Amino acid sequence: MSALRTALRVEALAWRRSTVPRLATPLLVGLVPLASIGLVALARSGAVAGAGAAKLADYATGDLATTHLEVAGQVLAVAVLVAGGFALAAAFGQPLADGRAGAYFGLATPRGTLALARCVVVLGWVAACVVVAVALTLGASAVAAASLSAPFGPAAWAAAGRALAAGLLGAGLALPFAVVATATRSPLATVGALIGVVALTQVVVLVGGGAWFPYAVPSLWTGTGGPDAAADVGGAALAITAAVAPVGAGVVVAQWRRLTDV
Length: 262
What we know:
The protein is mostly helical. It has one domain. Helices cover about 75% and strands about 0% of the residues. Helix 6 packs parallel to helix 11 (about 235-255). The radius of gyration is 20 Å and the shape is elongated. The relative contact order is 0.15. This is ABC-2 type transport system permease protein.
């Protein structure tokens, strides 16, 4: 455990100094409340017509605060996966691609422990961004609701909880891309795999299998596909989706234990 604690401290320090979180954190944290409040306001302004109005139709009615937080969950379900995938491509793929990982063979800390610490640090960063993004959306939504004398009741709090859970599920779904980064030793290949999974998810949803496909579950659960699609996502599907994170972490730790050359 002492080796893991040391690795966590070192990895956390390295991550704080990395360019990726410096760029991604404000984008991820700021995007969610801006998109949530802005899209709902746009939908209810009547300023959008045609195809745009049809896409925003679900946001034009209903409880204001609840709608804000439902949109936040839908945005988080996608944004967190993309941000986490890019982060893990950099954290695992770049050191292997440029040869810096060769120094790990001279450390007393096992490479599997280093990989686990890196997974925990990146996942912790993404989870913290999710919490802050939902909190900011809650605050902004409460202010907007108060200005219009709209209620902020139990339904809004339930939507906030679902948005938070969807964001955390999306963060866990990013961990398998650490496996891809280790196997390919290429951040670019990892980003390509991420884009491929996002595209595959759209196809799976179109053919009706999204309720059991982990990469589609958070988005559908938050209502992206409508209330009927959200109702199709059951506890078993959520449990399978949550299991992706520990499985991904276990695989990447095993990969790093077996690294013999860099």
